[in-house]
Fold this sequence. Notes:
Blueprint: E1 22-27, E2 32-34, H1 44-54, E3 60-66, E4 72-74, E5 81-90, E6 96-105, E7 110-116, E8 123-128, H2 130-133, E9 137-139
Antiparallel strand pairs: 1-2, 1-3, 3-4, 5-6, 5-9, 6-7, 7-8
Amino acid sequence: MSNTVNDNLVSFVVVPYTPKIRFLASLSDGRTVIQDNRPNQRHAWARLAQWLKENPDVSITGVRLQAPNRIDVKMPPGQKGYFFGQKQHAVWGGSQYNYLGIGYYDGKMVNVAWYRQAKFDHSFTEERTLESAGFFVIQTTQ
């Protein structure tokens, strides 16, 4: 394990604020960051991006989305970056759905798979440019 700073910025264990549906980010130092939803704090993905900037010798090596019903969606390891985001889909006067997106940047495009919460009973994929994916992508450094 490398010497890192500000380890309190992210969670490496399940905590009271860990959501049932969460991302897990595997790191090059062998540890795994587990999403937490701390009150009055930035989203865990944004805090992970900040932590990685402060610890440039560590990089994300893989990301997965985990749900309590044994769903484990894994992204390919060793990509140039990873994506995590949320979106809502609504129809005027109709249904509203929340989706979680997980994906990877292969050096050309960001490939995202969106899953409807909470049952993962609908999904779709999309490709985005790195620019259009914006801060939802954390690029790897190694």
